[in-house]
Structure formats: structure tokens, C-alpha cells
Amino acid sequence: MKQYAPVILDVTHSLQQPNQSSGVTGGRPDLIETVAKAGIAVGADGIFIETHPTPETALSDGANMLRLDLLEDLLQKLTRIRESIL
């Protein structure tokens, strides 16, 4: 697929857990770092991660968001992985 377009991994939505009964989705924010690292390691060209200063107060998708204060550290780790495979 990369021959046609860049591949972007939507990390947070890939961890979203729909709930049919309440209409409110859950998520696995504890796996955001792992999935993002795996995506970059296998060659994804970019990532999409929803963030919020306080995910528990977000109006939408809070259960699968990364806290904003954790983003910089994660991006540094992902950059190191990307640089090691290029």
C-alpha cells in the first residue's frame, strides 16, 4: 500500500472499544505507547493520537485518549525508533 500513499496508523481509534448498550465507547489508553511503537517499528509513515489535558473530562473519546502531558515523551521515543530503522 505504501507505493500508493503514506500509511498512517490511527493509534487511539484502533484501541477504542465500542459499547452497544450505553452508546459510550471505552478504550485502552494503557496500550497507546505499545501500539504506536509497533506501528512505527513496522514502517508506518505517521501516527494519529487523540490527546487531551484531562481525558476524563473530554466530550468525546476520552476513554481512549492520551493525556497531553505524556505526548512529548512518547513522540521522542517514536522518533528514536523511526531513526533506528531508516
What does this structure look like?
- It is a single chain.
- This protein is α/β, with parallel strands linked by helices.
- About 35% of the residues lie in helices and about 10% in strands.
- It has three helices and four strands; from the N terminus they run βααβββα.
- The protein has helices spanning about 10-15, 30-40, 70-85; strands spanning about 10, 45-50, 50, 65.
- Strands 1-2 form a two-stranded parallel ribbon. A two-stranded parallel sheet has the order 3-4.
- α2 (about 30-40) runs parallel beside α3.
- It is globular.
- The protein starts with 7 loop residues before the first strand and ends with a helix.
- The mean pLDDT is about 90.
Brief overview:
With about 90 residues, the protein is an alpha/beta fold.
Output the strand order for the largest sheet.
1-2
Count of DSSP E strands?
4
Average pLDDT reading: 91
Ends distance: 18 Å
Beta-strand portion reads 5-15%
Helix content: 25-40%
User: What is the count of helical runs?
Assistant: 3
**Which structural class do the helices and strands define?**
alpha/beta
What's the order of the H and E elements? Answer: EHHEEEH
Q: Tell me, briefly, the overall form.
A: globular
Q: From the alpha-carbon coordinates, what is the Rg to the nearest angstrom?
A: 14 Å
User: Low-confidence spans: pLDDT under 50, at least 5 residues?
Assistant: none
- Largest β-sheet summary: 2 strands, parallel
Keywords, separated by commas or semicolons:
single chain; about 90 residues; alpha/beta; two-stranded parallel ribbon; two-stranded parallel sheet; 3 helices; about 10% strand; globular
